[in-house]
Amino acid sequence: MIRVASQLTFCSPQEILRRTVVEQNEESVITGLFGLDNSSVESAHTLFYDGIISAGFVSLKKYVGELKSLVSDYNYIDLSIDKKTDIIKQNKPLILDFGTNTTEQINQLLPLIAPALSGFTILEIIAACCYYPALLLGITASLSIGRNTELLLWENSDLVEKRITKRTQIRKIG
Fold it and tell me: CB of 149 within 8 A of CB of 56?
């Protein structure tokens, strides 16, 4: 069992928790979510990180052959083909598909597309990589108790302005 905490925990676009511990068992199932501010003592054996904790990446390309009809209600950007220099906000939720779920490959692409994502908050970007793709596939999208997912830490972002930077990196934790 591991316990991790950070300034922010992205559970869903509607639920961003502050100073929250995420507890996960050996099978990568979330077994607990609890706030540090509500506790009289800190959780023992908790690893504290600087950044935002989220569920793991979901690449639609890895799971679905024909995407066109599936993503018609979304602003779907396939970053495995086109390293966009400009991504425009639309009235549809954004989905960023890197064509992979590996943090190493995504971290190589992130600085290249960071300028194109300047119009989006880091929370919108996390939703675009982790939440909305899972929702489309029928996977539990929220970071919640009972969900089986790897945990990601979004580091070196501007937490005051809630923006990614050219130094933003993502790593698996746990």
Answer: yes
The span from the CA of 57 to the CA of 151, in Å, is: 9
Residues 51 and 66 in one domain: no
Alpha-carbon dihedral sign for residues 130, 168, 16, 172: positive
State the Cα–Cα distance between residues 32 and 3, nearest whole angstrom: 9
Chain segment 65-92, per-residue pLDDT in tens = 777 878 899 999 988 887 666 788 899 9
The helix (H) or strand (E) run that includes residue 32 is strand 30-35
Q: What is the sign of the dihedral through the CA atoms of 149, 152, 158 and 163? A: negative
- What is the identity of the amino acid at 71? V
Domain that holds residue 29: 2-56+142-173
Q: What share of the chain is helix, strand, coil (3-state, %, to 5)?
A: 20, 30, 50
End-to-end CA distance of the chain: 9
68 and 132 inside one domain: yes
Give the pLDDT confidence of 120-142 residue by residue, as tens digits: 999 999 999 999 999 999 999 99
pLDDT of residue 100: 86
What SS3 class is residue 24?
strand
